[in-house]
Specification:
The structure is a single chain. The protein is an alpha/beta fold. The protein folds into two domains: 115 residues, FAD/NAD(P)-binding domain; 105 residues, 3-Layer(bba) Sandwich (FAD/NAD(P)-binding domain). The longest helix is centred in the middle third of the chain and has 19 residues. It is elongated.
Length: 236
């Protein structure tokens, strides 16, 4: 019986592993390789800040799992892992529903010989009261698109206003690592582009962006020399 390799999670790690194993073991028939993910497409997580700011069209930059599987000799299964039976070597997938709430795929089980869990990570709010209920996170494409839609809605409401009052928008970004800093820069650019396209009731100088970081400076993971050149190049 062919050895069954099941990879749960189609992020950067899981997708790369499925592709490499498919090109080698899958192509030779040494093993069957299956990738499981709750979404049909993949977009590289470090690009989500561009989706949030509206500078990247996620539909053009996403990768389709079905096509990737076909090209690279592995199988793709749509579903979200809901359980694991290690003794029987089987995983359970929850039922999948479409946008109208109609069941698309029933709950089911998949057998494996080797199981790889590559579900990635999510933002840690450190138990801060109210964060989960009131903050927007950038862990998924849907979250990034939600952020962008809320930003655009704010501009559209201001554009339709009948008063002469100065409109402002404030954005607080918690975390001044690469994603936080890049998001701030992309929002700065977006403010100018939106005004140039006629949504000018909120002028670029009236978008107030605040970076909140627990460390002594932004981009704490970079050495001091790299930090200065990066910030100068991005904001200078």
């Amino acid at each position: 019986m062919t050895h069954r390799i099941v990879i749960v999670g189609g992020g950067a790690g899981g997708l790369e592993l499925a592709t490499r194993l498919g090109k080698t073991l899958g192509k030779r028939g040494t093993a069957s390789v299956m990738l499981v993910d709750a979404n049909l497409t993949h977009i590289w997580k470090p690009l989500l800040h561009e989706v949030a700011a509206g500078s990247l069209n996620s539909s053009e930059d996403e990768l389709n799992y079905v096509a990737q599987a076909k090209w690279n000799h592995f199988e793709f299964q749509l579903g979200r892992m809901s359980g694991l039976d290690r003794q029987r070597k089987r995983i359970q997938l929850a039922a999948t529903y479409d946008e109208a709430g109609v069941e698309l795929l029933p709950a089911r089980e998949l057998g494996y010989d080797t199981l790889v869990i590559a579900v990635g990570s999510t933002t840690n709010d450190f138990g801060t009261q109210g964060a989960a209920q009131h903050c927007l996170f950038l862990d998924t494409r849907k979250q990034a698109e939600r952020f962008h839609q809320q930003l655009l809605n704010h501009y559209l409401r201001a554009h339709a206003g009948q008063t002469d009052a100065v409109e402002q928008i404030s954005v607080a970004i918690v975390g001044a690592g690469a994603t936080g800093v890049e998001l701030a820069a992309e929002l700065h650019n977006a403010a100018h582009e939106l005004a140039a396209y006629g949504l000018d009731r909120i002028q670029p100088e009236n978008m107030h962006i605040t970076l909140i970081e627990a460390g002594p400076r932004v981009l704490p993971a970079l050495p001091e020399c790299g930090f200065r050149s990066t910030v100068t190049g991005r904001f200078g």
